Q: What sequence folds into this?
């Protein structure tokens, strides 16, 4: 092979193109006007950093920047979920554990931690009256006050039913296992390591005030800002567009100081089937999932009286967007954030990584590549990085999967139908490979070929024939 010195890769684009920046600001301006928002700020992150922010306001000369705090409502749930996943990764709990094992004495103890994270525990959507978002948290001093007399209107594990009390329970779970308050765990384990200095449980100047806009007249009413008490893990936080861009990038890439890339990918994986008629949306472990324009997004929307918020990241495009407004209703910040991702991804598509050869050629693995047959279905096996392999059908949709190498000389499926399944190369007495075994599926070099003994049910001894 001819060797050569490769040129230095160009640095990632530091700034967006002028036309892209104008398109982003135009979209923000349209949403602020159409949604009648007292103020609206948005930001976009790419290549590991915030690359654009813009805002519109009803007050001349006072447009907010990406450092102004807004209340972010249910985006708080993403932070709470990260704290729970950290406990799992440290071996302090398992997602399959019932809540009762770590937080005894609640009326929802049979629900598993995974079900609470994915809103499949069957719990009620809201706490009992009075409306918790507009009243002081000290009206609900105990978990029993949050859960009420009928905490679970649905059977656990059967239906996705969004539950704010469920995340109250998860916050209390964090406190029970950590031995510190939810707020202290949040600060020490997420905010400080990620440098989210402008994210807090209570507002810090400069911050926006929350407003209700009259539905039939252009007049305003200030909204109360309550401390949510036990409900805080479901919606308490204040943050900025800049901080949330950093958090969105973390949700895409992970950070070993907080949560590994593998664990944040687990958060982004669908944990429940979408509801009928809603096949473009779903829920992972603390993250909302959406598919729009063929693009897969992960993040969350949020609202509390006086505020609406949206955060989305497209991992495939390497783009994240945040939108925040200080109105109880009107501006569609979730839609806006998704549109901002799409504007950048379409106008300035991500450059693929340059192709590079593998660092070494493993003759044993090379001998496995090429054509394999599952029955009469033709598959191609190719090598990937780190000693992994990919098995892909050569016709039709089939069941493609990628596999990572295990220490035992086997491979574990990473995606698709074979996710979590084990792929083995079955070796003859002379050391050569006779076939592949994938969760009892046998792959041979020929369709029902001479290795008849390994094919389940055997092969007709007369072989292939015409009619």
A:
């Amino acid at each position: 092979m001819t060797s050569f010195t490769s040129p230095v890769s160009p640095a990632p684009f530091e700034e967006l193109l002028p036309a892209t920046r104008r398109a982003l600001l135009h979209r923000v301006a349209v949403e602020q006007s159409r949604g009648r928002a007292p103020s609206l700020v948005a930001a976009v992150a790419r290549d590991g950093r915030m690359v654009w922010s813009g805002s519109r306001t009803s007050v001349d000369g006072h447009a907010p920047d990406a450092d102004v705090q807004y209340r972010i409502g249910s985006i708080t749930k993403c932070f709470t979920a990260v704290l729970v996943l950290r406990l799992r990764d440290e071996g302090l709990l398992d997602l399959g554990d019932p809540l009762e094992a770590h937080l005894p004495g609640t009326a929802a103890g049979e629900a598993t931690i995974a079900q609470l994270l994915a809103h499949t525990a069957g719990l009620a959507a809201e706490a009992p009256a009075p409306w918790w978002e507009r009243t002081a948290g000290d009206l609900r001093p105990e978990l029993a006050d949050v859960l009420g007399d009928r905490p679970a209107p649905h059977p656990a594990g059967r239906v996705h039913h969004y539950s704010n009390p469920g995340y109250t329970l998860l916050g209390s779970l964090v406190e029970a296992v950590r031995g510190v308050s939810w707020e202290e765990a949040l600060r020490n384990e997420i905010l400080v390591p990620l440098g989210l200095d402008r994210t807090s449980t209570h507002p810090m100047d400069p911050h926006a005030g929350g407003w209700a806009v009259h539905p039939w007249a252009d007049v305003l009413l200030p909204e109360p800002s309550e401390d949510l008490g036990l409900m805080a893990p479901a919606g308490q936080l204040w943050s900025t567009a800049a901080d949330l861009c950093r958090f969105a990038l973390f949700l895409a890439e992970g950070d070993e100081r907080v949560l590994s890339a593998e664990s944040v990918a687990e958060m982004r994986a669908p944990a429940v089937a979408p509801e009928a008629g809603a096949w473009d949306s779903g829920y992972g472990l603390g993250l909302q999932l959406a598919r729009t324009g063929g693009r897969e997004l992960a993040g969350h929307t949020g609202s509390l009286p006086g505020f609406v918020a949206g955060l989305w990241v497209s991992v495939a495009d390497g783009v994240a967007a945040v939108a925040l407004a200080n109105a109880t209703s009107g501006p569609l910040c979730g839609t806006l954030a998704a549109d901002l991702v799409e504007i950048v991804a379409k106008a300035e598509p991500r450059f693929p990584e340059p192709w590079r050869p593998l660092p070494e050629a493993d003759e044993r693995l090379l001998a496995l590549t090429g054509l394999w047959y599952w029955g009469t279905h033709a598959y191609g096996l190719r090598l990937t990085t780190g000693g992994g392999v990919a098995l892909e059908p050569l016709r039709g949709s089939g069941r493609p999967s990628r596999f990572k190498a295990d220490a035992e000389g086997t491979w574990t499926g990473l995606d698709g139908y074979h996710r979590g399944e084990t792929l083995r190369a079955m070796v003859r007495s002379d050391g050569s490979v006779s076939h592949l075994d994938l969760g009892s599926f046998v792959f041979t070099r020929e369709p029902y070929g001479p290795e008849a003994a390994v094919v389940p049910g055997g092969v007709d001894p007369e072989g292939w024939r015409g009619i």
About this structure: Residues 35 and 463 are 71 Å apart (CA to CA). The two ends are 50 Å apart (CA to CA).
